[in-house]
Amino acid sequence: MGSYCAICGKMHRNWPPDLACQRPDAVWALATKERMKRSRENDDLCVLRPGKGAPRERHFMRGVLLIPILDGRRDWGIGTWVEVSKRNFEHYLEQYHADGRQLPRFPGKLANHIGSLGKTLGRRVEIQLAHGKRRPTFWFRSGARHALAVLQREGIRAKELHEVINTEAPWLLEG
Ligand SMILES: [Zn+2]
Question: What residues does each domain of the chain span?
Answer without folding.
Answer: 3-25+59-170
